[in-house]
Structure formats: C-alpha cells, structure tokens
Amino acid sequence: MSAYVLVVEDEVDIAALVAYHLARESYRVRTVDDGVAALRTMDAERPDLVVLDLMLPSLSGLDVLREMRQRQDLEAVPVILLTARKEEQDRIEGLQLGADDYVPKPFSPRELVLRVGAVLRRVQQQPPADSGGRLLRTGPVAVDTGAAVARVEGHPLDLTPTEFRLLMVLVERRGRVQSRRQLLESAWDTTADITTRTVDMHVQRLRRKLGPAAGWLETVRGFGYRFRTEPPGQG
Ligand code: CA
User: CA 90, CA 96: separation in Å to the nearest integer?
Assistant: First the structure.
C-alpha cells in the first residue's frame, strides 16, 4: 500500500507541483489550501505524512501542528514544514512543537520528495517486531525496543517516533557522550541537510516529556548529550 501524503498549501501552483512529484513516486496525495480544511481532511482519513505550509489562511501551519500534537490519533503523524526564509522564528517553534523536518522555500520538489521518503522510512522502521526487542533500563527510564514503548517509573511516555528513536539511542549508549551529528545519523537515518539544531529541539521536547527523569538526559556543553548511568547530582 502506498503511503498517503496530505499537502497543506494555499499557493495553488506550489501545491500542484508538490502533488505531481509525489504522485510520480506513487504516493497517494491530497492537497488542501487552508488549515481548517487540513484538520477536517485528517479526520476523514489519517495521513501517513503531512507536508505543511506555515502561512495559511484561517488557521496557520503552527496552529494545525499544535492541534495535531494534542490529539492522540494525530500525535504521531510525521510533519514536514514548508517555510519561508523570513519565518525562522516560526520554524524553530515548529520544531519545538514536534515537526519532523522542514524545507525552506524556494525548494526543489525532488528534494522534498526525498525528504518525504526519508521521514517515512524512519517512522516505518519503528517497531522492529521480529527482532525480539530488548528492554533497556537506566534509573527510572525503561525502553522496550520491541514494543516501541518507553516508560518513566512505569508510566508510558507519549513520544513521537523520532523522539522514541532518540531516547532509544541515548539510553542504548548511556554513559557516553553523543554528539549532535552522531544522534542525527542514528536517530534520523539521514545526514541530509537537517541541521544539528533540529537535534536540540527534539532533545528539549524529549526532556519535557521525561518529566521526573528529565535530569538523566544531560547536556555536555560543546559536545552533545549523554544519558546518565547514575542519578543526577551524583558522579
Ligand atoms: Ca502559504
């Protein structure tokens, strides 16, 4: 079954161009031209991925993303933002809200199609059901790689696929500092032009979701991140 991609873009020419290139790679594509219609369309059928323009009439791209991340049925749907150069602040906010990637305008449609493929591969890699998952534990954090579930003090965390992979990689390599570049390569499965800044945004979000265990994920200034093997404040 081909993946279903929803393209939310009010500039008709851009939407048509993106749809054309995605359809040529055999994706199933729908386009909508405003934020309210986007959410309504997602209600009718859950997309496998959303390409989301930031500047939209009625409801902005950020509003759509915020709404998606608050809804259980849409929380894990990957999102690629289309952003204009002058929207840097919005782009950062979008990554903080849990967008998986962004493509600055003007963009090459072929590059966007490659990004779509990369994000979908990452998501689909998620539960390695047949690999007899492992249970990784450190302090209050337990990561069940088979079931793709992470828990803090026994309570399951509500993570996006990218956040889960990031946590898994950090816990797997606990005690060792991981550079942003290393995390990008392991958790994102691509080195293509996603900036290391993206890693910082996802780590921030992951830390918030870790709640009482947030202190276990420490920043090593100038190097990257490390998951502790001993409680924060010791060692
Ligand atoms: Ca627009």
Answer: 10
Q: How far apart are CA 4 and CA 79, in angstroms?
A: 13
Centroid of ligand 1 to alpha carbon of 34 (angstroms): 9
Per-residue pLDDT at 130: 45
219 CA distance to ligand 1 middle (Å)? 36
Strands in 49-53's sheet, in edge-to-edge order, are 28-32, 4-8, 49-53, 79-83, 101-104
Please, what is the end-to-end C-alpha distance for the chain in angstroms? 51
Instruction: Please give the CATH number for the structural domain made up of 135-227.
Output: 1.10.10.10
**Ligand 1: centre distance to CA 165 (Å):** 31
Residue 177 Cα, ligand 1 centroid: separation in angstroms? 40
Query: For the chain, where do the domains classified as CATH 3.40.50.2300 start and end?
Result: 4-124
Which CATH fold topology does 4-124 show? Rossmann fold (3.40.50)
List, for the chain, all residue ranges whose pLDDT scores fall below the cut of 50: 128-130
Distance 130 CA to ligand 1 centre (A): 42
Tens-digit pLDDT profile for residues 154-163: 889 999 888 9
Q: Where along the chain do the CATH 1.10.10.10 domains lie?
A: 135-227
Q: Cα dihedral angle (102, 105, 107, 109), rounded to 10 degrees?
A: 80
User: What is the per-residue pLDDT for 76?
Assistant: 81
